[in-house]
Amino acid sequence: MQKAVAALLNAIYEQDFLECSYGFRPGRGQRQALNEVGRVVCRCPTGWVLEIDIRSYFDSIVRSALAEMIEKRVNDGSVLRLIQKWIKVGVIEDGKLLVSETGTGQGQPISPLLANIYLHYILDEWFEEVVKPRLKGEAHEIRFADDAILCFQHKEDAERC
Questions:
Q1: What pTM did the predictor assign?
Q2: By the 8 A CB rule, do 44 and 151 touch?
């Protein structure tokens, strides 16, 4: 069921995802992300690079925010209820069911897509719509799942970001 919903959501969100996002997307992967890093560093004015690796990313996703993000594009109540259940699912550790109040399950078929949706709004759109217009020089983002490289022309821009 998760694979079917993920396929449906992929068709919706592929229209929204920005070019900077490479992780767990159809026709995109690590090789394309690395090629883009090389292209940006070699061909664009890049003097400063910020590396982002979100620690315990799946555990730190704010469930209510993720649900609101999904509701922006999905209005089918049954699909939304399924996603809510999948977000809140627990894990079995040492034979005991552990249910967390935060984060989402990792390793489910729908998990990578949910992670991309969250970072699309939290990082990608923020960088494109809020950060870049305020910079003095060029800036580029290349993201693969919860890892990203932000490249800046000027030191002051990198420090402000």
A1: 0.90
A2: yes
